[in-house]
Write a structure and sequence with these properties.
The structure holds 2 protein chains of 2 kinds. Chain A is 58% helix and 8% strand. Chain A is built from 9 helices and 3 strands; from the N terminus they run ββααβααααααα. Chain A has helices spanning 22-25, 29-36, 51-66, 70-73, 75-85, 90-103, 106-120, 125-132, 140-149; strands at residues 7-11, 17-21, 44-45. Chain A has a 3-stranded mixed sheet. The longest helix of chain A has 16 residues, at 51-66. Classes of the chains: A mainly alpha, B alpha+beta. Chain A binds chain B through residues 13, 48, 90-91, 94-95, 97-98, 101, 109-110, 113-114, 116-117, 120-125, 128-129, 132-138, 142-143, 146-147, 149-150, 152-154, and chain B through 1, 3-10, 12-13, 16-18, 20-25, 27-34, 36-37, 94.
């Protein structure tokens, strides 16, 4: 397959521009559709994504495009790279989820969500609230009703 | 938007996160906040917990089987469900969603079971199936069952068990060990079992009077663990036929129990079926 040297340009919310190969940009289903509809010829503005997050997202996409051939031969290496990639603070994790969701990059969304899921597994509800700074907005009656419904989860 | 926290994620993203935990975790998370509760109800979450062939299982469950959400379906399948016109029973393990099946006696191949001189088919209230089969008398006891491995959960160790009762009038069942076997693909695991409950006083008496004869009979059979019957919570007894590791292929799993080397008459065995369930 002939490789296009076509580049795609992105502009982050804080005005920085990023240029990547078309193949890397196509990891995003959203961008892929734009390219197919021929709407990606100019700079693509991403008002929801900061430069810090956009550079991480593009780093992920580039790595996965480059490693596509090696993935069969060296799956452990890519897994190890992914494990390192997610070693970031909580806020960055959620920014990445929002960006991956917005740009529709399924593998990145699953990777970050799995990282957050691992922080939830085995925890009691008030520990989950503490970890993620979530407010309990149930009334005592509502809370009791939900607890009764899921009694079996505590057995 | 500077820094985000979990509160800023759309509910669909929280659902993706919860779908990557486990059924008990998703349920506990419902208590965190109203957003979490709503996200945890989503079909997206429970579709991931359901086995990949759940549509096929539902189609085998008959027309009365109804549900209004994937979560309701998951919880329904955690109680035993009769499928394939009542020939098999299916159940999911609630905490992880691994599958288990019980093959009814009609689904098994029991040598001479169509001859009422040897085996009698009947309905009893204690059975989950419409029929069980009771042994009147026979010298050749041979029971086979099989299931396709792709029906089971992948990458799981499964145990196989013959479910039975021993009638009060039973005789000849524990004179000599039965031979059990489980085969998957080209692997076979053989073992031995006594169709009796462990009873140390009875054993002491038997050893006192019959030890020579028992030794002689036992030597006809292969070496094995000589397992015994175990009580189940549902009122039936079970004897383990063997275990195997289910990868992710599609092979025939063959299970059997045979007592054909004793040549003596035995009777009073009531067969419910064979259960194939995950071993913890």
């Amino acid at each position: 397959m002939a490789s296009t040297s076509k580049k795609i340009m992105f502009k982050s919310s804080d005005g920085e521009t990023f240029e990547v190969e078309e193949a890397v940009a196509m990891e995003s289903q959203t961008i892929k559709h734009m390219i197919e509809e021929d709407c990606a010829n100019n700079e693509i503005p991403l008002p929801n994504v900061t430069s810090k997050i956009l550079s991480k997202v593009l780093e992920y996409c580039k790595k996965h495009v480059d490693a596509a051939d090696d993935k069969e031969k060296y799956p452990d290496e890519l897994k190890a790279w992914d494990a390192d990639f997610v070693k970031v603070d909580q806020n960055t994790l959620f920014d990445l989820i929002l960006a991956a969701n917005y740009l529709n990059i399924k593998s990145l969304l699953d990777l970050i969500c799995q990282t957050v899921a691992d922080m939830i597994k085995g925890k009691r509800p008030d520990d989950i609230r503490k970890t993620f700074n979530i407010k309990n907005d149930f009334t005592p009656e509502e809370e009791e009703e939900v607890r009764r419904e899921y009694q079996w989860a505590y057995e | 938007m500077e820094c985000s926290d979990l509160n800023m994620l759309p509910e669909s993203c929280v659902s993706v996160i919860l779908s990557l935990t486990s059924p008990p975790d998703a349920c506990k998370s419902s208590l965190v906040s109203t957003t979490f509760q709503s996200a945890a109800e989503s079909d997206l979450v429970w579709e991931r917990f359901l086995p990949s062939d759940y549509r096929e299982i539902v189609s085998k469950a008959g027309n009365d089987f109804k549900f209004s959400s994937k979560k309701e379906l998951y919880l329904l399948l955690c109680s035993p469900v009769l499928i394939s016109d009542g020939k098999m029973s299916f159940k999911l393990e609630r905490s992880i969603g691994r599958k288990s099946y019980i093959l009814s006696a009609r689904e098994l191949s029991i040598t001479w079971s169509n001859d009422p001189m040897f085996w009698v088919w009947k309905s009893i209230p204690e059975s989950r199936f419409s029929e069980v089969v009771e042994l009147r008398t026979i010298s050749w006891l041979e029971i086979h069952g099989k299931i396709r491995s792709k029906m089971l959960s992948p990458n799981t160790t499964y145990g196989t068990y013959l479910l039975l009762k021993v009638a009060d009038r039973a005789y000849g069942l524990d004179v000599i060990p039965s031979e059990t076997s489980v085969e998957i693909g080209n692997q076979a695991f053989n073992n031995t079992a006594y169709l009796c409950i462990q009873d140390s006083k009875k054993q002491l008496m038997e050893n006192l009077f019959y030890s020579n004869r028992k030794q002689m009979l036992k030597s006809r059979v292969i070496e094995g663990d000589n397992r015994v019957l175990n009580k189940r919570e549902d009122g039936w007894m079970e004897i383990e036929l063997g275990d195997f590791f289910n990868g992710d292929g599609d092979e025939e799993v063959k299970m059997s129990l045979k007592e054909i080397k004793g040549h003596h008459l035995k009777g009073g065995l009531i067969i419910e079926g064979i259960e194939v369930r995950p071993k913890t």
